[in-house]
Every structure is written in C-alpha cells, then in structure tokens.
Amino acid sequence: MDEYMEQIRSSGRRLTRQRKLVLEILNDSQEHLDADMIYDRAKSVDPNIGLATVYRSLALLKEIGLVQEHRLGENHGHFEKTQPTPHHHFTCLKCGRVIEFEAPQVIEAAYKLCENEGLQVTEMHLHLSGYCSQCHEGKLNCE
Amino acid sequence: MDEYMEQIRSSGRRLTRQRKLVLEILNDSQEHLDADMIYDRAKSVDPNIGLATVYRSLALLKEIGLVQEHRLGENHGHFEKTQPTPHHHFTCLKCGRVIEFEAPQVIEAAYKLCENEGLQVTEMHLHLSGYCSQCHEGKLNCE
DNA sequence: TTTACTGCAAAACATTTGCAATGAG
DNA sequence: CTCATTGCAAATGTTTTGCAGTAAA
Questions:
Q1: Residues of A from 55 to 84 whose C-beta is within 7 A of strand D: which are they?
Q2: Are B65 and B98 part of one and the same domain?
C-alpha cells in the first residue's frame, strides 16, 4: 500500500488525504465499484469529500496505472485496482454478477496479432456477457 | 436488407419509416457511428426525426441482434450493423483511428474457457488501445 | 380502428469544469 | 510561501422518459 502512495508522489503529484482514501477504498474492495459507490464509501470516512474529487482522483490513479476502468455493459465506468495478473470480465445478463477470469492464451494471441500489424498495444479489455451457470440452468441449450 | 426488415416485423414490432432509416444508415456505413452521427444523417433524409427515436430504434435493433454497440474508449456508444464474422477493435490513442481485426483463435479460446466454467456466452467484446503504426513511428519502443 | 410508435421537451444520469478557498510540500 | 488540489455549484454530454398526437397493421 505504501509503495502505491509513493508512486503518486513520484509522479510529481501531491499525496492528498482524498487520493489516499480513494486508493484505499479500491484496495479494500474486491468488487468493481463505480464512481458513486466509491463516493459513498469515501463520504463515510471523510464527509466533506466531493464527487468531483473522486472523479479527479480516479483519473489520476488511472493515469499512473494504479487503477483500471472497465465498462461492464452499463453506461458508466467501474473501477478496480490494477491486478498483478491481467484478467477479464463476464457479466451475467440476468443476475448482474461479474465473474473474473484469466485467459493468458487469449491475451497472448491478441497481442501477437496486433504486433504483426504494427500496432503497439497498451491496454486490452475483454468483456463477455451471457448467463452464469446458476442463471442458465433450466433454460434450453440451443442458442 | 429486406430480410432485416422482416426480422423487425417478426419480432412483433412495427416496421416504421424511422427504424428502416436507422438500419439503412448503419448498413450503408462501414464506420462506427455514434448516436449523434446517426441522428445527423437521419435528419438529412427525414428532417422531422427525433434523437429519442434514434436511441429507441438502436435499442430495438440491438435487442433483435441486428446491431451491436461498442465502447471505444470514449464515454458514449458507437454502433455498427452486426457483421457475419465476429471481429474486434483497436483504438489509436493518438489519432483516434479505429482498426478492426479478426481473431478467431482469441474468440475460440475465450468461448472454450467460459464454457468450461459453465458460462453461456452471448456476446463478446475485445477492445485494445495503443498506438497505430503511423503514430508510434519515431517513438521509443521501450513501453 | 387500435395501440405501438413518434417528436418534443423535460428529466435523469454520468462526468467535467470554473473558481475561490485550502493545504501539501 | 506557493501553487497544486479541493469542494461546490454550474456546465456539458449522453441517454431516457412522459405525454399528446400520429401512423402501422
């Protein structure tokens, strides 16, 4: 955690109470929080924090690479602390559950493909949707 | 094209002038249009069409599966007619160009992985960003 | 004729920005 | 001290909704 704080400082930006708090909230949560959820949790610690500050902190943390933003089917962003191993997301269209999965082969294949075309890849998002095992039980398997 | 119109009808919805127009616009364009671009083009044919109708038509066409929505890094949707072969998108962070690419191995691998976990996949979005060949020329290759 | 669909204007969200006050370095 | 950062409120941009009128079936 402390090394993350240091990363903020060494990016030339100031390590403020608010930025620390946003990062801590993401660090403590294994879910994919949206800006409003982060704002709510932040307010319970620091009631004076503003939503704009949450957005600005998230933008900074993304810029530094400590945080990633994902679009999980809804039209607002979800945020999570950057994980050591890249992973991807599956959203159940019925229950809304988000399942994470690793897919090294997929990542590998996509990178190679792009590099062959002269593209320099800096970010990759794989998002699937459908029905999780609980939700598609009892449904026909056709389609 | 006519069979698409039929698909709207057979979904139990009405085949209106406006829905036809939105579908035609997407059919005629190889780009990834956003709602506003579609609205502009639609107005040039039918000046009375409303933006809300464009959104409602897009939602219907998505529901039927004739149209797909993608998030290409910006915070609004881009739409394209569903293609026969699934494909994916790369956005250049510098020039904004969107490059499409096919990746059967990637799709295959991701599907298999999910099915092994009991997930029924209905949709898949792979989005990469980085720098296209024109834009990363002259830059250092180290990250 | 019926009622799903449209256009409009207003509402609902999501996110960003201007600015005076504040606090990190 | 200094100026990057904050909180607030207002602006922006995207998408949705309520409703009376219109048109597809």
A1: 56-57, 75
A2: no
